[in-house]
Amino acid sequence: xxxxxxxxxxxxxxxxxxxxxxxxxxxxxxxxxxxxxxxxxxxxxxxxxxxxxxxxxxxxxxxxxxxxxxxxxxxxxxxxxxxxxxxxxxxxxxxxxxxxxxxxxxxxxxxxxxxxxxxxxxxxxxxxxxxxxxxxxxxxxxxxxxxxxxxxxxxxxxxxxxxxxxxxxxxxxxxxxxxxxxxxxxxxxxxxxxxxxxxxxxxxxxxxxxxxxxxxxxxxxxxxxxxxxxxxxxxxxxxxxxxxxxxxxxxxxxxxxxxxxxxxxxxxxxxxxxxxxxxxxxxxxxxxxxxxxxxxxxxxxxxxxxxxxxxxxxxxxxxxxxxxxxxxxxxxxxxxxxxxxxxxxxxxxxxxxxxxxxxxxxxxxxxxxxxxxxxxxxxxxxxxxxxxxxxxxxxxxxxxxxxxxxxxxxxxxxxxxxxxxxxxxxxxxxxxxxxxxxxxxxxxxxxx
Length: 448
Known about the structure:
The protein is of the alpha+beta class. 23% of the residues lie in helices and 36% in strands. The chain is built from 9 helices and 19 strands. It has helices at residues 4-20, 76-92, 125-140, 209-222, 240-253, 256-260, 321-327, 359-363, 414-419, and strands at 25-41, 44-62, 65-71, 145-164, 169-185, 192-200, 232-238, 281-283, 306-310, 313-314, 335-336, 344-345, 350-352, 368-376, 386-397, 400-413, 422-423, 433-434, 438-446. The strands form 4 sheets. A 6-stranded antiparallel sheet has the order 3-2-1-4-5-6. α3 (125-140) runs parallel beside α4. The longest helix has 17 residues, at 4-20. It is globular and about 70 Å long.
């Protein structure tokens, strides 16, 4: 894997080669990854993996025609052949009036923010193994845990470099660590499984092994002996580990491609209140050590913190340059991309601002409801907003979380879900999308 300086130099050299081959414009993306993962089960080492890879991609423009090529071979001969292929392909490609690089006047020109994305650590496999064993030991020590699906630790680093033919050439490095455990409680037909995990940018921020393991064990034990729940319309509470999925549906609906193709349930609603007036949802690409923090987007535009929802209303769309041109707007610095093909758009570190009620106050007046801790399936229609997913969790009775429940379905429409959403005060920053406990009114629950 190249260093950041080596990667930016290689990307710049490939731009020069593309221009010499007749490109009117070009951009190059390099991504290098190296990771180590350790898995254990029942107190024994199960697997150790080490992977390293790098790839470089070229977009070659001839007028409004373009083609993309990529290679994991970074030798001079391989890159020369890649430029030659891209040139030939671009000249045969159909025209796309919206294709092209980001506007030059919008490119990041200053140094850009330090998002503290790389701790430059490289823990040894032996250290990772001991942590994984400690996680599983803690999970298996919880009374009621009867088996283990294993525990694991991973550590990795990535280098990203982007160069364009109109003057952008930057790179950055990130690190990443995660720990997890999945265990089983109960016996026979009454067995239930659950898990716990934690992902961070800096190794020192990873939860203690005991905390990860015990949480997995306690969650599994709490699910043993699920009861029955009669069907009906009732409040549904989303635990923070699943509540972020509701916001992910919002993010998908406000991407430029969905709006330009008219495939979003939020199309034409940008001037309407979507949430209650006290709801604010923020995208912050500059959060230090954030899981998706980055100084520039996939087209070289500066990233900036932004309120996606303010006072319950949408503030606009997430736009890459192509979708912005289609909509007659400016790109928003949300372009994201892989090695091959054109950029899309997505958010970075997103959070929903907490409310004033504690979790217990949020559920205190619920006579009958559901506290959801797991969602199953992908029954969401992005065009209509219709929502129907399998779920499990706990019954709420008379304002208290009671026994577990499984094999239920919760349904509604995302517009109604957003409109009645109430956040608790327990926001924690642990994921890419962070939300407090959420309450949704009047969802349809299909039980036994």
